[in-house]
Amino acid sequence: MAYDTDNIFARILRGEIPCNRVYEDDWALAFHDIRPQAPVHVLVIPKGPYVTLEDFTTQATTEEIAGFWRAVGTVARDLGLSADGYRFLANNGRHAHQEVMHLHVHLFGGCDLGGMIKRGLV
Ligand code: 5GP
What we know:
- The structure is a single chain.
- This protein is of the alpha+beta class.
- It has one domain (8-109): HIT family, subunit A, CATH 3.30.428.
- The chain contains three helices and five strands, in the order αβββααββ.
- It has helices at residues 8-13, 53-59, 62-78, and strands spanning 21-24, 28-32, 40-46, 87-89, 105-109.
- A five-stranded antiparallel beta sheet has the order 1-2-3-5-4, covered by helices on one side.
- The longest helix is centred in the middle third of the chain and has 17 residues, at 62-78.
- It is globular and about 35 Å long.
- Guanosine-5'-monophosphate binds at residues 8, 17, 19, 31, 33-35, 43, 91, 97-100.
């Protein structure tokens, strides 16, 4: 899928739409999800124009990939999630119900998050 430069996260990156920012560096921006599903629910997005993990891991530079994943870890640590644990999750494509077509990692924490995935799939 081609990258849509008008997707909501692209517009947040350009500063056209506000966000509740928690972290930013050369490779990533992190901000609170507008519809939180846990006491802590933060999104971490790479700064480059990637729709999926496939796009990111085939087209991004090694520096971008390392910088992004380092930022995910930094944000989790800065949010104080490490001691009790947390979940990082990325919806990728149709089966995962990816809603925003700019790669993003959800960070969930602040409570017991329960089981990993909907039961009864297999
Ligand atoms: P997905 O299903 O694509 O993994 O999740 C997209 C996430 O982006 C959802 O959790 C949704 O609440 C969040 N989201 C969508 N639009 C906005 C927005 O304008 N601002 C923020 N902060 N989050 C958004």
